[in-house]
Amino acid sequence: MAVQIILLLYLTYLSVLDIWKRKIPSGLLYAGIPAAFVAAPAGSVISGPLSESIRIVYVSLLGALPGLLMTMLSFYSDKVGRADGLVLMTVGVTESGTFAGILMCISCIILAAVSVCLMAVGRADKNTRMPYIPFVTAAYVMMKFFERGGFGI
């Protein structure tokens, strides 16, 4: 539960930076991934058998795949930022690959809905760049509330 709250604070801070500056410092991005790799298996290493620790490391590596795919997409398209994939990698390592994939889908749906609303009122067009990480944060909060009724509380 503590890791999820820290991840939420991390995502919220990155969202604010993404909205205000449209840029995220690379130090924050590159610090998130190793921290997630340490935090994910740490609980099982301390209290569980070795086989459980190895399973959690594999789940963490598989969790990074959706973010890795988005990062690779950012090299081929200027519509996707490199930070977006790295943030999804951090979430995927902390949670799971399935969680990260669903999170990516929900955040894209929310982004599309907001884009349609903004285009309807004339505040955006098809070439308007929008920050993606705030939508990832919104989707993360939604998924956590629907998962267990609010961050396990």
Supply database-style keywords.
153 residues, mainly alpha, 0% strand, globular
Question: Can you walk through the features of this model?
Answer:
This protein has 153 residues and is mainly alpha-helical. The chain is globular and about 55 Å long. Helix 6 packs across helix 7.
Detail the topology: elements first, then pairings.
Elements: H1 2-21, H2 26-47, H3 50-63, H4 65-76, H5 82-94, H6 97-120, H7 133-148
Helix content: over 70%
Arithmetic mean pLDDT: 83
Outline the low-pLDDT stretches.
none
| Whole-number tally of structural domains | 1
Structural class: mainly alpha
Figure out the total of helices: 7
**Beta-strand percentage?**
under 5%
The largest pleated sheet is described as: none
Question: Quick recap of the structure?
Answer:
With 153 residues, the protein is mostly helical.
